Amino acid sequence: MILLTGASGFLGQHIYKTFSPVFPIIGLGHSGSNCDRRIDLTDLKALEALLNELKPDTIIHSAAIRDPDECVRRPETAKALHVDATKVMAEWCQKNGRRFVYISTDYVFNGKNPPYNEKAEPDPVNLYGETKLAGEKEAQKCPDHLIVRIALQYGTTDRPELSFIHKAIKTLSKGEKLELDNVQKRFPSLSADVAKAILELEKRRYVGIVHMSNPVGITRFQMFKTIAAAFGFDPDLVVDTGKPPQMSANRPADCTFDLTLYKSLGLPPFHSFEEGLAMIKDEVKASL
Ligand SMILES: NC(=O)c1ccc[n+]([C@@H]2O[C@H](COP(=O)([O-])OP(=O)(O)OC[C@H]3O[C@@H](n4cnc5c(N)ncnc54)[C@H](OP(=O)(O)O)[C@@H]3O)[C@@H](O)[C@H]2O)c1
Questions:
Q1: Percent of the chain residues topping a pLDDT of 90
Q2: What is the pTM of this model?
Q3: CA of 227 relative to ligand 1 center, distance in Å
Q4: Does 227 map to a domain?
Q5: Can you give the residue range of the structural domain that contains 64?
Q6: Centre of ligand 1 from the C-alpha of residue 66, in Å
Q7: Does 231 map to a domain?
Q8: How many CA atoms are closer than 13 Å to the CA of 68, on its beta-carbon side?
């Protein structure tokens, strides 16, 4: 049985949907309703009690505060969720001979010397990356572990408030402009592709770190132009700010992954951003 944290989240929903025909799975949420059980993972006593009650064979820890600016606003919660809860779960798995899977991020790198393979030295530039990296170190203490580093997620969702595509379409449909940086490279990756690749790694019980993403990097400005074109809006509504991203937490400029390991494992290729948008277009429109 798999216990999935963050099952009510953007990626968690896709992992739950992809895994449930293959493995028995229990999905945990916190405030969201689309999950099997709710728990505050920062309540470490309640977490330990839940693990002793459910005794999962594998834990997939996807819950996080994934917005770096939100991590700046709530540093204690970010640390508790990314590091302390990870420690409790990884130690429980180690003690009970179970498997631990940790969803991590390309933001563990500083973005100055891409491409990054799995052996590259992490050097996060913000608290989000620092706490996610500290979580990786806890995860590695469990011998049977998998760490999956992923990039920016997009796809279908029943929680449009978690999706940058849904938010962009709402703005564009009002004829309002979107001003975005044309500097930082992102690697928009279809969450359904990510979930499929993780399932494949789980079937093999792969141990170690794996990088996975759409290989083509584009800036926010280019990304939102592509969204406007795909959904039939005027691409001129998307404007280049002419400046680097202006956000409270620093952002790494270019975290391109070296995907040699991913390819050598024969894992399914990622859809391009254009292909992915075409695949999700009707469902996204219906959920607005
Ligand atoms: N999304 C991206 O672009 C991206 C990029 C790189 C890496 N990642 C990584 O991918 C993983 C999944 O991210 P996501 O996009 O699915 O994030 P998300 O949509 O923001 O979902 C976060 C999840 O964490 C849960 N959560 C938050 N605080 C909690 C708490 N105190 N106790 C229990 N659960 C709590 C949320 O539950 P409720 O909603 O029910 O409160 C939700 O299920 C994360 O580990 C993130 O670091 C994401």
A1: 98
A2: 0.98
A3: 23
A4: no
A5: 2-159+188-216+256-271
A6: 6
A7: no
A8: 20
